[in-house]
Structures are given as C-alpha cells and as structure tokens.
Amino acid sequence: EEDAEIIVKIFAEFSVASETHKAIQALNGRWFAGRKVVAEVYDQERFDNSDLSA
C-alpha cells in the first residue's frame, strides 16, 4: 500500500570489533533521506545463515 511503512536494512561486516562500534557510534541517530538511522549489531549466527528477517 502507498501509506505502508518502508523498512530498509543495510548490513556491513567488519573484520575488527572496534570498527563495528565506531560505525555504530557514527551512524546511530543520524538522519538520511528524511529518516532516522538505527545502527546496531546483528546476530552473527543469523547473518551467517542468511536470516536477515530480525
């Protein structure tokens, strides 16, 4: 429907944990294209199993 909420998910994988936390700090709460960004760590097992539904 035209008025339905659109959810966009973007995943990034980092080789060093500290890079992950820096990215979250830099992106979380910012605005992009009129929408607020929510940056958080995703469950690694779900990601590895291509379960991107959470």
What does this structure look like?
The chain is of the alpha+beta class and 54 residues long. The chain is built from 2 helices and 2 strands. A hairpin with a 2-residue loop joins strand 1 (31-32) and strand 2 (35-36). The longest helix has 11 residues, at 17-27. The model has no long low-confidence stretch (mean pLDDT 92). One of its GO terms (molecular function) is nucleic acid binding. This is Fuse-binding protein-interacting repressor SIAHBP1. It comes from Sus scrofa (Pig).
Descriptive key words:
54 residues, two-stranded antiparallel ribbon, nucleic acid binding, alpha+beta, 2 helices, flat
Task: Write a concise synopsis of the structure shown.
With 54 residues, this protein is α+β, with helices and mostly antiparallel strands.
Task: Draw up the topology in text.
Elements: H1 17-27, E1 31-32, E2 35-36, H2 44-48
Antiparallel strand pairs: 1-2
GO molecular function: nucleic acid binding
Protein name: Fuse-binding protein-interacting repressor SIAHBP1
Organism: Sus scrofa
